[in-house]
Amino acid sequence: MTPIITTDPARIDLDAVHAFLSQQAHWSRGIPRRTVQRAISNSLCFAALEHHGPGAPLAGFARVVTDRATFAYLCDVFVLPAGRGRGIARALLAAIDAHADLQGLRRVVLFTRDAHGLYARHGFAPLTNPERGMERLHVGLYTRANDFPQGPAA
């Protein structure tokens, strides 16, 4: 099966994306649905669908946070278990590589725990100067946020 890759927000199954990210993804377990919805609304998203028709089931997903001029962060890349081993991740990455809004960027970054080989085939390499990178990481944020029905107080 060759997946259909779309960036049409109307074709993204928010329930399926949220279910995977909140229940299965090691990097976002417990993420609130409204956070996923906001992230999708403010990103360039790619959905891999099983077929063209309406209501086509989601097979995979990727999200790109970008200014569409100089920088992009590739994140939330996943293929649902039923679609693994069928080239869906490669199709998603090829669509991202070819997208008009992502051409000419100086830097595209991502983080991965176990898919280095996949990303290396698409030109990614370890950080050139990792000593320059810094982060502010809030471990357990989503778990704590779920303790409050309306989210933590601002």
Structural class: alpha+beta
The run of helices and strands is: EHHEEEHEHH
In percent, how helical is the residue content? 25-40%
Number of helices: 5
Residue share in β-strands: 15-25%
Oligomer: single chain
Distance between the termini: 46 Å
* Strand arrangement across the biggest beta sheet: 1-2-3-4-5
Shape: globular
C-alpha Rg (nearest Å): 16 Å
Question: Could you name the ranges where pLDDT drops below 50 across 5 or more consecutive residues?
Answer: 148-154
β-strand number: 5
Major β-sheet profile: 5 strands, mixed
Describe it for me?
It is built from five helices and five strands. Strand 2 and strand 3 form a beta hairpin. The N and C termini lie far apart (46 Å). The C terminus is likely disordered.
Q: Gist?
A:
With 154 residues, this protein is α+β, with helices and mostly antiparallel strands.
Chart the SSEs and their pairings.
Layout: E1 4-6, H1 14-23, H2 33-41, E2 44-49, E3 58-66, E4 71-79, H3 88-98, E5 107-110, H4 116-120, H5 141-145
Parallel strand pairs: 4-5
Antiparallel strand pairs: 1-2, 2-3, 3-4
